[in-house]
């Protein structure tokens, strides 16, 4: 994309920017509680394409945006997903800036949403993490929420991370942006949180959830707040990615140094900890939710090296935390660099930010760039905040479906989903029979349908249908060994007793939902419309 001269956005820009390859999307407004923010889109010449809310004049203070606009192309059209400090998250039409949906969170959302298609549907799912303030409730708890939405705004999964203390009440909670990768055949979502087990100082952690909103692990407590966003990259050269987290170690009001942890993505176990090695690179630093480590293979050894902002831009060996290079950035810059490939080989590292007034009363911005003669972006790297220009937060390729379906989805012939616990499986067999199997492979329950090539379909009213290739369907159930069609609502009587819980219930936004739930039969395997 060509450059352009200064463009006045009208407000401070604290959030990371995103791009669809031609245009730049900028969250700019000081939004305030319950106010719709101003998201802006600029073309390749710096011209304003749209403003999501041009009619509202916001005060010069009282709110702020730290979350970027994540982008995805759905059916050939760009969609944007963003948040505000005013308790809401939004879907936005990328072509017009029109708001397509909104959802009111419990509190502010400082984190940029992650995007990934772990349902195998027509578009990606949107992963938001936000904080939760107990407010005036003396029995309430601070903490956070994880929320999963379809791209058209239906919440289908949520989990909370309560905490037991007020150590980080002012700036803790869930502020870091989620990151996603596949680990051991399961998609996992990682983000920083002061929960779920904080009881005092140092209780900040990375937590990992599966796509059914079940917590898989929580790391050991860090030495500082887990507000910066996690990075998922192979910094140890094992062939599988690890989770990299920067935390600030605050020694005084004017001195903070970075501490870097490398975690096992499957278990959360700490593999490498920089400890006090980076203390000499401290200063008046901050690590907000809009910053993360980035990686590239700088020295060409096949392993991702880690870029960490300090009083210099540090390039670290992921295995030893040794400093490979310390680049002078002219001040404390609270941004993540961007690493790009050089046409002739090597990489280019660029960082932008502000310098402060340096004692001369003049403030200004800084853009600095360096190149290497060796190295490359490599594989399983994280070259910028959010991993890519669309801020997807996704590392690698997913292989859905995993353990759930939502309304409007189908399970094709020959495809299975497997429970998060216990190894129970739901399979739409090629012979037309839908079967729930025990861990040993024996059938626990089936529809006893027999039209080859049929698929399982989740209807919007909460029923399951086995649909033949010709488009004929009936509610999943059995009677006397034969399949029959039923009117909606009759399925409760015919489903296996272990499958009856929550059938025809009401979910988020009022949609019906059906769970194959934690009953020992299919613990964690969900079929969940809405």
| Uncertain residue segments | 165-172, 195-202, 477-530
CATH topology of the domain at 404-527: Agglutinin, subunit A
* Structural Rg: 24 Å
CATH class of the domain at 404-527: Mainly Beta
Care to describe what's here?
With 530 residues, this protein is mainly beta. Mean pLDDT is 80; it is low at 165-172, 195-202 and 477-530. The strands form 11 sheets. A 5-stranded mixed sheet has the order 16-15-14-13-28, with no helix packed on it. The protein contains 1 helix and 40 strands. The two termini are 39 Å apart. Strand 25 (338-341) and strand 26 (347-354) form a beta hairpin. It is globular and about 70 Å long.
Provide a short characterization of the protein structure.
With about 525 residues, this protein is mainly beta. Strand 11 (about 145-150) and strand 12 form a beta hairpin. It is globular.
What layout of secondary structure does this protein have?
Elements: E1 18-19, E2 24-27, E3 39-42, E4 48-51, E5 70-74, E6 77-83, E7 88-93, E8 99-104, E9 114-116, E10 125-132, E11 143-150, E12 155-162, E13 179-183, E14 186-193, E15 205-210, E16 215-218, E17 231-233, E18 242-252, E19 255-264, E20 270-273, E21 294-296, E22 305-309, E23 313-316, E24 323-327, E25 338-341, E26 347-354, E27 365-371, E28 394-395, E29 404-405, E30 410-411, E31 415-418, E32 425-428, E33 434-437, E34 443-446, E35 455-458, E36 464-467, E37 473-475, H1 491-494, E38 505-506, E39 512-513, E40 526-527
Parallel strand pairs: 13-28, 29-40
Antiparallel strand pairs: 1-2, 2-3, 3-4, 5-6, 6-7, 7-8, 9-10, 10-11, 11-12, 13-14, 14-15, 15-16, 17-18, 18-19, 19-20, 21-22, 22-23, 23-24, 25-26, 26-27, 30-35, 31-32, 32-33, 33-34, 35-36, 36-37, 38-39
């Amino acid at each position: 994309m060509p450059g352009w001269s200064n463009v006045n956005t009208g407000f401070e820009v604290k959030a990371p920017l995103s791009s669809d390859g031609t245009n730049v999307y900028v969250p700019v407004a000081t939004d305030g509680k319950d106010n719709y923010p101003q998201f802006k889109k600029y073309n390749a010449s710096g011209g304003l394409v749209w403003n999501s809310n041009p009619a509202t004049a916001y005060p010069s203070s009282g709110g702020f945006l730290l979350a970027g606009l994540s982008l995805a192309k759905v059916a050939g059209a760009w969609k944007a997903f963003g948040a505000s400090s005013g308790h809401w998250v939004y879907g936005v039409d990328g072509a017009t800036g029109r708001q397509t949906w909104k959802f009111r969170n419990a509190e502010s959302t400082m984190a940029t949403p992650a995007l990934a298609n772990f349902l195998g549907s027509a578009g990606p799912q949107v992963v938001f993490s936000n904080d939760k303030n107990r407010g005036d409730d003396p029995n309430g708890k601070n903490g956070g929420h994880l929320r999963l939405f379809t791209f058209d705004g239906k919440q289908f999964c949520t989990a909370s991370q309560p905490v037991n203390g007020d150590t980080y009440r002012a700036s803790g909670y869930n502020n870091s942006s989620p990151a996603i990768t596949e680990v051991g055949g399961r998609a996992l979502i990682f983000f920083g949180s002061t929960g779920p087990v904080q009881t005092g100082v140092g209780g900040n952690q990375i937590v990992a959830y599966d796509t059914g909103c079940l917590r898989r692990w929580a790391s050991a407590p860090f030495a500082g707040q887990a507000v910066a966003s996690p990075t998922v990259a192979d910094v140890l050269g094992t062939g599988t990615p690890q989770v990299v987290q920067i935390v600030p170690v605050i020694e005084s009001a004017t001195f903070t140094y970075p501490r870097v942890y490398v975690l096992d993505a499957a278990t959360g176990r700490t593999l490498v900890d920089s400890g006090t090695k980076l203390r000499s690179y401290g200063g008046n630093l901050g690590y907000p939710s809009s910053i993360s480590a980035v990686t590239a293979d700088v020295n060409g050894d096949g392993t991702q090296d880690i870029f960490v902002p300090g009083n210099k831009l540090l390039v670290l060996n992921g295995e030893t935390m040794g400093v490979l290079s310390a680049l002078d950035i002219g001040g404390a810059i609270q941004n993540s660099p961007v690493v790009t490939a050089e046409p002739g080989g090597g990489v280019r590292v660029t960082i932008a930010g502000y310098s402060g007034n340096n004692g001369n009363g003049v403030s200004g911005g800084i853009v600095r760039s360096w190149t290497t003669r060796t190295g490359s972006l490599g594989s399983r790297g994280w070259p910028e905040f959010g991993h890519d220009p669309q801020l997807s937060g996704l590392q690698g390729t997913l292989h859905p479906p995993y353990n759930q379906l939502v309304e409007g989805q189908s399970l094709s012939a020959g495809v299975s989903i497997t429970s998060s616990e216990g190894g129970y499986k739901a399979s739409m067999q090629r012979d037309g029979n839908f079967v729930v199997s025990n861990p040993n492979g024996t059938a626990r329950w089936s529809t006893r349908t027999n039209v080859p090539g049929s698929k399982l379909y989740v209807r919007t009213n909460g029923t399951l249908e086995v649909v033949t290739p010709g488009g004929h369907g009936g509610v999943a159930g059995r009677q006397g060994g034969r399949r029959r069609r039923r009117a909606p609502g009759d399925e409760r009587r015919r489903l296996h007793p272990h499958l009856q819980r929550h059938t025809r219930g009401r979910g988020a936004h009022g949609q019906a939902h059906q769970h194959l739930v934690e009953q020992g039969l299919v613990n964690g395997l969900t079929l969940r419309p809405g």
